[in-house]
Design a protein that fits this description.
The complex is a heterodimer of chains A (315) and B (394).
Chain A: H1 3-10, E1 16-21, H2 28-38, H3 48-53, H4 84-94, E2 99-109, E3 119-128, E4 132-133, E5 138-150, E6 155-166, H5 176-179, H6 196-203, E7 208-212, E8 218-219, E9 234-238, E10 242-251, E11 263-270, E12 275-280, E13 293-302, E14 305-312
Chain B: E1 11-18, H1 29-44, E2 53-57, H2 64-70, E3 78-82, H3 89-102, E4 108-115, H4 135-138, H5 151-166, H6 170-184, H7 199-204, E5 207-210, E6 212-213, E7 222-230, H8 232-235, E8 243-251, H9 271-284, E9 293-295, H10 304-310, H11 319-324, H12 341-344, H13 351-362, E10 374-378, E11 385-392
Helix pairs in contact in B: 1-2
The chains are: A alpha+beta (315), B alpha/beta (394).
Chain lengths: 315, 394
Amino acid sequence: MSIDFYDQIQKFVGLEAGTQDGHDEVNQAMIRHWVEAMGDENPVYVDAQLAAESIHGERIAPPVMLQAWVMRGLKHRPESGGSPQDDLMNVLDGAGFTSVVATNCEQEYDRMLHLGDHLRTRTIIDSISDEKQTALGTGHFLTTRVEYETLEGEPVGRMLFRILKFKPGTGRSVSTEEESPPRPLRPRPALNRDNQFWFEAAKEHRLVIQKCSDCGVLRHPPRPRCDKCGSYEHGAVEASGKGTIYSFVVIHYPQVPSFDYPLPVGLIALEEGTRLVADLTGAEASEFKIDMPVILEWQDLDPDLTLPAFRPVKL
Amino acid sequence: MSEQNRLKDAGAIVGIGATEFSKESGRSDLQLAIEACEAAIFEAGLEPSQIDGMVTFTAETNPEIEIAKNLSIGELSFFSRIHHGGGAACGTIQQAVMAVNAGVADYVVCYRAFNERSGHRFGTGVQDRPMAANAESAHFAWYAPPGLLTPAQWVAMFATRYMHEYGATSEDFGRIAVADRRHAANNPKAWFYNQPITLEDHQNSRWIVEPLHLLDCCQESDGGQAIVVTTPERARDLKQTPVIVRASAQGAGTDQEMMTSYYRQEMAALPEMGLIARQLWNTTGLGPRDMQAAIIYDHFTPLALPQLEEFGFCGRGEAKDFIRDGNIELGGNLPINTNGGQLGEAYIHGMNGVAEGVRLVRGTSTNQPPDVENVLVTAGTMVPTSALILGKDS
C-alpha cells in the first residue's frame, strides 16, 4: 500500500457524506413483507387491535428495520457528482478493492417508529482502516455513522455500519475446508421402541447393555423378549468400556463422504460378554489385531449422534 | 426341521432361459424379466398360457402380473415371493416344487431380472436407503452409523474371524476367484469370457474392504434368468430331458441376522447352510460323495469355504486344504461354478447358478465334467438361504 493512497482515502474521514430522504413513509406493506421474510410473528407489527392494547398503544415498525427506511434501492452509485461516500467508493474501486462485504452493524434507538413517520439520514464517514489481510482478501474496513431523524428533525436512532472493501482473489490460499461442501452427517440409525434407549444413553456417554429384569442375562443387540426366560421386562447396565477385538475390517471402498478412509471398524467383545460393532481409533489401520485389548472412547459426531469407538489399550 | 420331507424327486426343471449378461442392458428391468421368462417357457416347449404359477424374490421389482400380462400367460393360480436377497434363489424352486405337488399349479416359472449394474447398484448396500423405524431397518442401526454399509463390508467381518480361527489366507479365497474365472473364460455367455486371472492378479487387486480384494467380490450385472418347474410325470412329456429336483431346502439358523450373524458363540460358521445340508442329505439318502459337481454361491469368495464345510465335503476349517488340493477344479473331485460363478459369469442373485446346475445334469455345460449324476446348488450366504440337489431322471 502506498502512503499516498492511504493519505488519499484518510481525507474522507470525518466528512459528512450527505443526507438522504426515505423513499416512503414507515408503512404497513413494507413491515409485513419484512416480518414475513424474517419469520417474526409478533402481532404488534401487523395487528392494529392487538397493538392498540399493547404498551405501545399502536402498531410499531420492528426496531431493527431502521436501516430499511432510508436505502438507495437498486439504483447504481453515480460515477461522479455523488456524495463524498460515493467518491470514496469509486476511489477504492479504482485501486482494485472492488468487492464488498458487510461485517458489522450496531444500532441505537431513541423511540419506536410508527406508521407515517418519514425518515431522513445524515451519514458521516467515521473511520477507514489501513490495509488489512483478511481471509477474504486484502482490503480496508470502512465505517460509517448514520444518524436517523424525521423530516421534522426529531432524532429517532443511529447506526454504525462497517464494510470491508477488498481485492477479489487475494484471500487465504484456497483451503479445501472452505472450498468443499460441509461433510454430510453419518447415516442415521433407525430408532424405535426397542433400540432408542441405547442411542440416548450414548449421547450421555454411557455404553449400556440390555439386561433381562428377570433372569439377568445381558444381550446385544437389544430385543423385546428374553430368549432365555421369556421375560418382556428389561433394563440396562453400564459397560466398563473394556474389551477385545473379536473381528475387524478396514474399509477402502466405496468412500462415503461422511467417513474418513481407510476406515477400521471392529466387532468388540466387551468384558461383560456381549459383542458390539464400533469404529476403531487411536492406531493405524494396519495395527489392529484380533484379541487386542481395547478401551472405549466417545465420538460426538453431531448434535444427534454420539457413538462409541474403541482404541488400543496402551500397555 | 421336519424329518418327513416328502419332496424327494418330486419336481423337475424343464426349461431354462436367460437374457445376455452385461453391464448395461439398454432396456428396462421389466423387459429383461419378460425376455428371460419367454426364453425359458419356449425352451420347455410350453405355451405361455400353460404357465399357471410364478415365483420370485421379494427383492425383485418386476411383478409377476406384469410379466404374465406381457407374455399372454393369462390366469395365475399360484404366486409367491421369497425374502432375504440371494438366499431366495433355490427357495423359489422349492416353492414351485411344493406348488406342483400340492396341485395348486402345473407349470411354474421362477425368475429374477434386474439392471443392478446400470440401474441401482447392489454393491452400494444401505448407504442411501431411507431408514424406517421398523425392525428390519432398525437392524442396520448397529452397522450403518459406524460405517458398515455394504454387503462386502458385512462379509469382511466374517472373513477376518474365519481366517483367524482356521488359518485360511487371502490366497485361499483367491483360489475360488481363479477357478471361477478359469471356468468363465471358457463360457461364451460369461461376462469374463476369455479373461482368466492368476492368483497374482488376485493378490494385486486393490482392497475393497480388508481382508477382501476387488477380485474377491462378485460382479454387478444386468440380466435376467428364468427356470420352469413342473412334476416329473408332466416333465417326461415335454421337449427337454427332465432334470429332477431331488431335494430342496431352506434354512435360517439360530441367532440368524441378515448379513451380520456376529453374535453366535461360533461366528466363523454357517449353521443355516448346515441345516440345509441335513435336510438335503436326509431327504435323498445321498451324501457329499454322491455329488459330481456343485454351484457354490460366490457373491464373495470367503463364504465359499464354510459352505464346503457345512455340506461335509471336508471337515470344519479344512476348506482351505480341500481347495489347495485342487478339488474344486475341472478334473477334481468337486468342480464348482463351471459357468464361472457370479464372479465370472454374472451376478443374477444365484438364479444363473440354478441354470448351470440344470446344464450340468443335462451334460451341456461349456465346462462339462464327465458322468454327472447329481449337482448341489446353493443360494446366498450370511442370510436365511436355500439349496437344491439336481439329478438325472432315473
